[in-house]
């Protein structure tokens, strides 16, 4: 394995022991930016990687979860890892796990795959998005040059803690001694400052810009752009980043920060019954993100009729998600769907959480299909004389089927990739730290894993 060449230890999943393998031959270490946050971390990662790539810096990008193909998780200069490269690198990782009796999770193996691949491609920089939390996330084995925390919200409370402060502490766990950390504006700064002081990390807060209300006047994409801008500005000041600093110009920055990943308020056009329908895809998957989506819709399309296709993950606040949507439209304008994924919320659970307010919504307990309800929404929108918009939102796990339904053609995983990437692993284990599944009463085990 080549992980040591990237400034991180060989992954021995049983104890993350950096002494478990001989040191690799010396070579220039990749520059690493590590990003955590409740919302925005994927977008910030994408914007930073876009800027570096535009500047001619060979950049590895690790993000999750994927929209249409597993290979999206590992990219170099925005080209996905190929099937041949997956086949080349996965066997050695599986062998190491089997030979050492290591019950690695899907996300740990995917992290190892990405870092192995980036090393083999000899990237100059890596932009690494955490899977969940930060302190115990498998991406936190890296010796990053810069840490970024975008935002903090109540999510994954069973694992991260049930207060904003506890969750903030977990995400600040990616701060590294002697390095710099950039944080967003609306965070519990006492926790951030305490962690920075504890590890000897320089803390930089994103500047508030933009109208009288500053950061709060901006939409999510603009906020993410400002966080990414500050991260890049701080990164190029770091010793050893001189070559990157010489390459990145203001035009690269401006163009890179304008870019956004798929399904982040992505506007498309679909056709139904000969009529063009505006479709917006957005992975607003929790109450804060849905609230921002509603604000953005009101700003961009004031008074315009909207129809929602919605599917959520089971670990979200379904009642608050439902009430947020019903605060914008009548239930007759809502289509409930259920992604084919172990984390998907059952339609029955969304109906129960939403109460009587959802009684008039559209759904099918037979097919539960994303594609079926998306097509129904398009047909109903085409019959509306008011130029109705269709908004597809919620879990990222429904987006591949929704995109296919509106005519977007994208690479999908072959049977080989589905088999190899699955390899007796369950995708729902992505959320679990270390090598154990944490139950409600396993707080002590969580602490043990953090030692």
Describe the 3D structure.
It comes from Triparma retinervis. Residues 275-395 form the Mur ligase C-terminal domain. One of its GO terms (molecular function) is metal ion binding. InterPro entries: Folylpolyglutamate_synth, Folylpolyglutamate_synth_CS, Mur-like_cat_sf, Mur_ligase_C, Mur_ligase_C_dom_sf, Mur_ligase_cen. Residues 35-207 form the Mur ligase central domain. Helix 1 (41-54) packs antiparallel against helix 9 (250-258). The strands form 2 sheets. This protein has an 8-stranded mixed β-sheet with strand order 4-3-2-5-1-6-7-8, with helices on both faces. The chain has a 5-stranded mixed β-sheet with strand order 9-10-13-11-12, covered by helices on one side. Residues 1-26 and 423-451 have low confidence and may be disordered. It is built from 16 helices and 13 strands. It has helices at residues 41-54, 83-99, 106-120, 157-160, 164-171, 189-199, 220-235, 242-247, 250-258, 287-300, 318-326, 347-354, 370-382, 399-405, 415-422, 443-450, and strands at 31-36, 59-62, 74-76, 79-80, 125-129, 146-149, 180-183, 202-205, 266-272, 275-282, 306-311, 334-336, 389-394. The radius of gyration is 22 Å and the shape is globular. Helix 11 (318-326) links the parallel strand 11 (306-311) and strand 12. The chain folds into 2 domains: 3-258, 3-Layer(aba) Sandwich (UDP-N-acetylmuramoyl-L-alanine:D-glutamate ligase), CATH 3.40.1190.10; 266-405, Protein-Tyrosine Phosphatase, Chain A (Alpha-Beta Complex), CATH 3.90.190. It is α/β, with parallel strands linked by helices and 451 residues long.
């Amino acid at each position: 394995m080549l992980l040591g060449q990237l400034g991180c230890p060989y992954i021995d999943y049983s104890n993350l022991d950096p002494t478990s393998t001989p040191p690799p031959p010396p070579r220039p270490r990749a520059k690493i930016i590590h990003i955590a946050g409740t919302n925005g971390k994927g977008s910030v990662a994408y914007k930073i990687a876009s800027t570096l790539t535009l500047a001619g810096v060979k950049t590895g990008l690790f993000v999750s979860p994927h929209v249409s193909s597993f290979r999206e998780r590992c990219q170099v200069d925005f080209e996905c890892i190929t099937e041949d490269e997956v086949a080349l690198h996965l066997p050695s990782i599986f062998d190491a796990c089997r030979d050492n009796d290591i019950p690695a999770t899907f996300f740990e193996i995917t992290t190892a795959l990405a870092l192995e691949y980036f090393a083999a491609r000899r990237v100059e920089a890596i932009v690494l998005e955490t899977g969940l939390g930060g302190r115990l996330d498998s991406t936190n084995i890296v010796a990053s040059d810069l840490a970024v925390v975008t935002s903090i919200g109540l999510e994954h409370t069973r694992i991260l803690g049930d207060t904003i402060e506890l969750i903030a502490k977990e995400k600040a766990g990616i701060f590294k001694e002697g390095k710099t950390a950039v944080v967003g504006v609306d965070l519990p700064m006492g926790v951030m400052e305490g962690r920075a002081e504890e590890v000897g990390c320089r803390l930089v807060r994103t500047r508030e810009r933009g109208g009288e209300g500053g950061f709060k006047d901006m939409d999510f994409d603009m906020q993410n752009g400002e966080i990414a801008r500050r991260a890049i500005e701080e990164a190029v000041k770091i010793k050893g980043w001189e070559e990157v600093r010489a390459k990145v110009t203001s035009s690269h920055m401006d163009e890179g920060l304008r870019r956004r990943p798929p399904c982040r308020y992505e506007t498309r056009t679909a056709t139904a019954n000969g009529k063009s329908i505006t479709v917006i895809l957005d992975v607003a998957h929790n109450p804060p993100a849905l609230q921002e989506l509603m604000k953005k819709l009101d700003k961009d399309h004031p008074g315009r009729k909207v129809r929602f296709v919605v599917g959520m993950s089971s670990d979200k606040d379904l009642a608050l998600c439902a009430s947020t949507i019903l605060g914008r439209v009548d239930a007759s304008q809502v289509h409930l769907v259920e992604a084919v994924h172990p984390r998907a919320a059952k339609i029955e659970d969304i109906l129960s959480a939403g109460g009587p307010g959802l009684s008039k919504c559209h759904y099918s307990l037979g097919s539960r299909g994303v594609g079926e309800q998306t097509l129904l929404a398009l047909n109903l929108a085409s019959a509306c004389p008011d130029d109705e918009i269709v908004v597809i939102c919620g879990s990222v796990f429904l987006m591949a089927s929704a995109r296919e339904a509106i005519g977007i053609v994208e690479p999908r995983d072959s049977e080989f990739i589905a088999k190899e990437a699955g390899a007796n692993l369950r995708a729902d284990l992505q959320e679990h730290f270390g090598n154990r599944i944490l139950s409600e009463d396993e707080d002590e085990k969580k602490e043990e894993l953090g030692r």
